[in-house]
Specification:
Layout: H1 5-22, H2 26-42, E1 47-51, H3 54-67, E2 79-81, H4 86-95, H5 103-109, E3 115-119, H6 126-138, E4 141-146, H7 152-156, E5 159-162, H8 168-190
Parallel strand pairs: 1-2, 1-3, 3-4, 4-5
Helix pairs in contact: 2-8, 3-8, 5-6
Length: 191
């Protein structure tokens, strides 16, 4: 075996182990969440997502799939990632502190009946926590995508999708898989 190849194989084996562990509960959790999001969208609700770093990219990706499409041709669904407006992010970070970059946007845009999804591999990002807590106060359905550990974010959310791992890259890979499966399930309900 050439040097350097084993870590790649081990990473792939770990990803497979995580997905196998998810098979027992995650499909029902994702289907149940898809029911709730589809119902919210049917009633005129919107979906808002946020996270930091790679989780911000995942939030944008999931919003893109909802607005555009994942598989079939269908009407656009209302979804927005709060990590995309650099003017808002930098102004809020400068004037109010990084912890409020999402909660202030939630305050401005989220209403009762909307859905707010916060992504955090650690489950401890203060700005994601504040965003979910603010969303809960306004009456939105709050959803957390996190890793396996108990965390303030899982406690703040009405629904938590917890990836059975504490390894950031593996959690992020599973988050985007969950995002794709969720978008597909929402499309099946609305088309």
């Amino acid at each position: 075996m050439q040097q350097g190849k084993e870590p790649v194989s081990e990473g792939m084996r770990e990803a497979v182990r995580i997905l196998e562990a998810m098979l027992s509960a995650a499909p029902a959790e994702i289907e149940g969440l898809a029911d709730r999001i589809a119902d919210a969208l049917r009633r005129g609700g919107r979906v808002f997502l946020f996270g930091n770093g790679g989780s911000a990219a995942d939030a944008q990706h999931i919003a893109c799939e909802l607005v555009g499409r994942l598989r079939g041709d269908r009407p656009a669904l209302s979804a927005t990632a709060f990590s995309t407006d650099t003017s808002v992010l930098t102004a809020l970070g400068n004037d109010r502190g990084f912890e409020q970059i999402f909660s202030r946007q939630v305050e401005a845009h989220v209403r009762e009946g909307d859905v707010v999804i916060g992504l955090s591999t650690s489950g401890r990002s203060p700005n994601v926590l504040e965003g979910l807590e603010t969303a809960r106060r306004v009456g939105a359905l709050t959803v957390a995508f996190t890793g396996q550990d108990d965390s303030p974010i899982t406690e703040a959310a009405s629904v938590s999708i917890r990836i059975p791992s504490s390894d950031t890259p593996r959690i992020q890979e599973a988050h985007i898989l969950v995002g794709h499966l969720l978008c597909d399930a929402i499309e099946r309900r609305l088309v």
